[in-house]
Amino acid sequence: MGKGGRDRRTSMEGPHDALRPGAPQGGPTLALAVAEPETNRAPDVDEPLVAAFPPRSRDLSFLRAVIDRRLGLLVPPAASHPAVLHAAMRHILLSPGKRLRPLLTLAAAIQLNASEHAVLDFGCALEMIHASSLIVDDLPCMDDAALRRAQPTTHVQYGEDVAVLASIALLSRAFGVAAAAQGVSERARLEAVAILSMAVGSLGLCGGQYDDLRPNPGRSLAATEDVNRRKTGVLFSAAVEIAGHVAGADEAQLGHLKALAGHVGRAYQILDDILDASASSASLGKDVGKDAHKATVIASLGAPRARKLLSEHLAGALAASKDLGPNTEGQEPLRDFMTAAFGELMGPLAP
Length: 351
Ligand code: IPE
Ligand code: IPE
Ligand code: MG
Ligand code: MG
Ligand code: MG
Hints:
The chain is mainly alpha-helical. It has a single domain, classed as Farnesyl Diphosphate Synthase. Helix content is 60%, strand content 1%. It contains 14 helices and two strands; from the N terminus they run ααααββαααααααααα. It has helices at residues 60-74, 83-93, 100-111, 116-138, 154-158, 160-179, 186-200, 205-212, 221-247, 251-278, 281-284, 297-301, 303-324, 333-346; strands at 147-148, 151-152. The protein has a two-stranded antiparallel sheet with strand order 1-2. Strand 1 and strand 2 form a beta hairpin. Helix 2 (83-93) crosses helix 6, helix 4 (116-138) runs antiparallel to helix 9 and helix 9 (221-247) packs across helix 10 (251-278). It starts with 59 loop residues before the first helix and ends in a 5-residue tail after the last helix. One magnesium ion (MG) binds next to loops.
């Protein structure tokens, strides 16, 4: 995860490429000694985690490969009954997303000198929740999207009935994975499950999505930012707060983590809305223009001021990482994460 926007792009063409699996990378060779699950066997969370997970690795592509490998083990194989349902779950979960939420969990853990092994399954649980939410977000009754992660959306590929069940199954599996996480205190595990529950529920993502679909034209900027916090920010907050609990963070550190995630979540939805209005479907791998009628920050402020607010949130997030302080090796992986996640996506948007 290099600083300074490695392979930084100067156009909107393919802004996600450097964050996608398979993008050219330096960094350590991936050599994971994890057994593939046998067909028709339920996933076994007691299977060894990654055997060759270099400590303190901050290489984004490497960490993403670790996450993907683990995700593949945590859900039933596509061939196991009911095969179509499992194929639909794997279709969305293992498709080439950026894995920002689990990466953020790992970055926070590394900055807090905690074991990245200990938070990996929580990161995977977050990615399952995210994937579940993407299935729902794309349904005809929601944003009605046909393309997601450069492939057909789950309901287009498998039908709405299967898509809804796959979403519920992923969500349910996420809580099972979190509840069974190894190598953490019982208290941290319980905190994590409670945090995930709050993040998904009516006071979090579901409530945010509800309000997002009911765009009141007179909605204030503050109200719109609160919708963004609930529909998008909560999973970023959960990512760092869970890492904080695993690391035994004190109140001051948790405060910095919450401040950081608050800014990251708001910044990320503004960026997503800017890309929705300005980038191509081919470069994003998903439908664009789906939020043109929504009460977005761009609708409130116009694009130039929305970009300024995005920059302010990013500055706030970077300041929070600085307040948290580097790890014992002098590294600031949260800063590196933000540089990678936003730098590559923003390209020419950067002020
Ligand atoms: C898309 O999230 C939905 C939003 C909250 C904006 P991502 O941009 O992280 O999507 P993937 O996971 O990379 O596909
Ligand atoms: C979705 O926001 C947030 C979720 C909870 C999935 P968007 O509707 O803007 O996400 P995209 O653009 O479809 O990925
Ligand atoms: Mg939406
Ligand atoms: Mg959408
Ligand atoms: Mg969007």
